[in-house]
Voltage-gated ClC-type chloride channel ClcB
Amino acid sequence: MKFPVRPFRALKLNASGRWSLLALLVGLAVGVASIAFEWTTQAVRRYTRGEFAGYPPEGSIGEHQFFDSANLAFSPWMVVVVITLGGLVSGLLVHWFAPEASGAGTDAAVDAFHNRKGMVNARVPWVKTIASAVTLGTGGSGGREGPIAQIGAGIGSTIADRFHLSSTDRRIMLAAGVGAGVGAMFRAPLAGAIFAAEILYSDADMEADVIVPSAIASIVAYSVYTRSISPEVRFQPIFGNDLAHTLDSPIELLPYTLLAIILMFMAAFYVRFFHATQKLFEAAPLWPHLRPALGALVAGLVGISLFVYSGHNAEILGVLGTGYGTLQHALNGDSGLTIGILATVAVVKMLTTSLSIGSGGSGGVFGPLMVIGGCAGAAFGQAAHAMFPEWVPYPEAYAVVGMAGFFSGVARAPISTIILIRELTGDFGLLVPTMLVCAITFVFSSKWILYTHQVASRLESPAHRGDFLVDVLEGLAVKDVYLKGRRLLMIHEGETLDEIVHRLAETNQHYFPVVDSNDAMVGLFSADDVRAYLYDETLWRLANARDVMISEFYRVSPDDDLNTAMQQFTTLNVDELPVVDPENPTKLLGFLGRKETIAAYNRRILEHRRETEQDV
């Protein structure tokens, strides 16, 4: 059953009021969906890993736990069994019900925005919720950002369809759903709104139209989601209130710059490795629903082998699951985390995430990226502190900056990342070094894009193809394009149809101006107009040019912009328009062709791309 559009019309809402109401609906739905997703994930974790492997729930200080821990002895190798079965179940769900729900959900939402007119199958939110909860709950190395982004996108798209909105409006609703999901799940409403507008593009561009609807939806979803959280942590950052660092001297920016360079190389390696793993699994001679199980099996074996080899060091288990527990300890600067352990988690987390998600498992990559960057930053901070203690007074601060810098370079979203890390940690004292590191990794990691469906800017987006046609054509004038000096066949108004037919047989011209004895243009007709008389020879000597022509026709002047001309080409469905002298509208200067107009647009676009490449 579809909701009617009439309620909006009856209320006679303006654009802002309409979008506020629609964003409110999206926020409410996504807030409830976020609660369902988190509860389901924790339920799967409690009754699979907890029940059969005695795996304690990992998490950060500010995360709410819906279930108590299972008081069982930890069985490492049972974790491998559970994670493999989780991969199998997730693969079967996705394969049977919604294949587009596989992998990282954020990229699927970006693809729907640019290439699918904002359309997402209504089954995706349900399948993504269950499949991702199974993947993450059983120990797959992934994050919650991707699933909730795709869930929110699906909800936004579905609501847009229920109200019969246009494809443009559907895209905005989709993006609002993405922002609402991220804002609720990470309890970061401002970052969610900016993330939805920024993640669509790989260059420094943003979808401005979605910011306000996304902000409203994000606030509402955040408000709904936090009602499910215990009051003790409800309004606390996910990684607690105790993180407070300062920048004591500009000289401290030097080691942060070095950290940015290291994160750049890590970003390049990770993106290439992740995509190579995806291609490897796609080429594997296996049924699609078995690939996530194989990826989960190998990831589980790697994680548990490291755990055993390290002497049962629990921090190593951060390479599985979300890894937030290990990241929390790194942010707090716990002494039990050595440089070796931190570096190992950072490197191996790249492998386990690529196996868990690159194999087709349903999950996100945001959480793993934070763990990788945070642990790498913490390891660097400890090493730099040992060598230059006066330059690096707070080694754990590099974990905060590393989280932001790595994600900024890989996901191409520096502004929302800076805001998000502030909302996740509550640490505003590191704003300057975070901005520095994010800017460096963003600028110098442009060749390595994790979300393959991102486009460089709105100019390259299919969603804005028509918009930029207008913008480009408005910068060109008719005089720059129309053919001057072209010899035209003029038809005198008194010529008979018989004479006209014989003259048309000797030319390829399609549109013919009709002139009077003073060569003033009085009308216009096309070859198609003449063909209507060809089957009635009795009219050939009776009818003349005035009978065939039209006297009221659209004309352009040399100074008109091509956007005006293109609108007439489309409205009138003609291929040529007469160009006249603006001071004497009866004086014909030539014809402007639709093909020449489109060719001028293509040349301007090519010039713009060349200028952009030169600037880069």
Observations:
- The first strand starts at residue 491 and ends at 492.
- Strands lie at 491-492, 511-515, 521-526, 576-581, 584-593.
